[in-house]
Amino acid sequence: MFHGSALGIIYFLSVICSLQAQLLEGLYCGKDNCYDILEVTRDASKNEIAKNYRRLAKLYHPDLHRTKEEKLKAEEQFKIIATAYEILKDEESRADYDYMLDNPDAYYAHYYRYYRRRVAPKYYSSWQRYDTAIKYFMTVPKYRNRALDIAKQDGLLHVDKRNRKSKSEQKEELDRIIQKVIEDKMDIKGAYAKPTLFDILWVQLILLPYTIAKYFYWYFSWIWNHTILKKPLSEEEKLYVIRKYMKLGHHQFESLDEEKKQEYLDHKLWVKENFEEWKLEEEERLKKQLAENTKYKQYRRYMKTHGVGRMTFDDS
To answer: Which DSSP string corresponds to 83-119?
Structure first.
């Protein structure tokens, strides 16, 4: 009995270590070394890093390769190179990365250092996007009129003949009411969704043990239900598999129309073979569209003549 308990504890600890390792794999350049990717040493200067990035980016730019297989491989490597350069070009992010290389066991410290640069700006930009979406819906007659109807039904519009407010003040008050109704009633999904407390970094860090445990439970539930018991997937699970095949983020997929999601379900894209066939058809359709696009033809001619320049990043 003691032997069995010991094995169970060892297995549990190995799983936790594996999950922690997976956390680190999702940071920076994953299992690869950012310096090795850019073919530089740790004491390389900023100019040396930029120079090697430009050389490798030109070598692996997808538009400079002909066959589909070569383009896919080049695109994958191009993303890896771009990620490595993004990390090493900034002095602070490079210092954080060096700290991880020197202290590989400090899981939580690495998680915090990595995501503090990404989550905090994203949280505030999410509020800006949400505010932009609300203001946009306020200008669309369809949504504005609907909000006015709801405001009238809820008794939010008070008509007072003795109201001495100016027209501009009355308009501001009306806009505030319409904005409040849209915020309360409209379910905005995707990248423009309203941010929550769970988007704040320190909240995520506090909940990290729970998040790991939840993932652990979900992972083994999936294996038990669908690999061992062969239970059919629910609609939500089918959409999850489709999203993973498409390599879309949660917000990206949520922002899709319900009709589009239903189309994916109708094509049974959660089945790998169906998805691969659908993907090829979509690629062929896009190729035909691009072949007829004058601007794309000009771009292709420019790339053949001049090659790729420093298109996406600034060394300053």
So the answer is: HHHHHHHSHHHHHHHHHHHH-TT-HHHHHHHHHTTTH
